[in-house]
Design a protein that fits this description.
Strand content: 35-45%
Order of helices and strands: EEEEEEEEEEEEE
Radius of gyration: 22 Å
Helix content: under 10%
Structural class: mainly beta
Strand order of the largest sheet: 1-10-3-4-5-6
Number of strands: 13
């Protein structure tokens, strides 16, 4: 039979030598990122919508569409909360946080239309959820929290994230947390209230 043999041969190079090392953090998880938009900095009314297909809704907090810095409690976003429920979380520059959830855990491997509405002028936030599976009863859940007393929610440097949220520890917003496990389709952020 024939035998295969590999022979190594040393080849000198200009890159040989010792070099200083440094820590290179690896932030795992996939997400979409839109840089901070000035148009969002003074918005008093917003609507967030998306189609979602959660695969592990009970794995803990998961960001769907967010512009928030978790460590500071600043900003807003649609999340799956620690109970597997759709939730809208809004925090202001004074560290006040308001959250409203559907109160019903999402089912895994089901398509849902989800929305969150923020109306700081009226002091109201609401979350909307519709299961879109054809053989289910398409139960619509709407929960509203009012009155809320929040100041400016948008004065943060966090980017808009799809399928995650920014940690915001220290001065960095480059550490993404609360990754969503599932599918997201047609995420949208409106600078006005839409009727759902």
């Amino acid at each position: 039979g024939s035998e295969m043999c590999i022979r190594d041969r040393y080849i000198p190079s200009d890159i040989e030598g010792d070099y200083p090392g440094h820590v290179q953090n690896i932030h795992v998880g996939s997400y979409g990122l839109v840089p901070n938009l000035p148009a969002l900095n003074n918005a008093r009314q917003l609507t967030i919508t998306a189609w979602i297909y959660p695969t592990t809704p009970l794995k803990g907090i998961q960001g769907l569409l967010t512009k928030s810095m978790v460590a500071e409690g600043l900003g807003y976003g649609l999340f799956i909360n620690q109970n597997g429920e759709l939730a809208l979380r809004v925090g202001d520059t004074l560290s006040s946080v308001a959250e409203v959830s559907t109160g019903q855990p999402l089912e895994r491997a089901e398509w849902y239309f989800v929305a969150g509405r923020i109306d700081l002028n009226a002091g109201r936030i609401s979350v909307h959820q519709i299961c879109a599976t054809w053989w289910r009863d398409k139960q619509q859940i709407i929960r509203t929290l009012d009155p809320i007393k929040l100041g400016c929610t948008n004065n943060n440097v966090a980017p808009i994230l799809i399928a995650a949220s920014a940690d915001g520890e220290g001065s960095s917003v480059n550490h993404m947390v609360h990754h969503f496990n599932g599918k997201i389709d047609s995420p949208k952020l409106f600078l006005y209230l839409i009727h759902i």
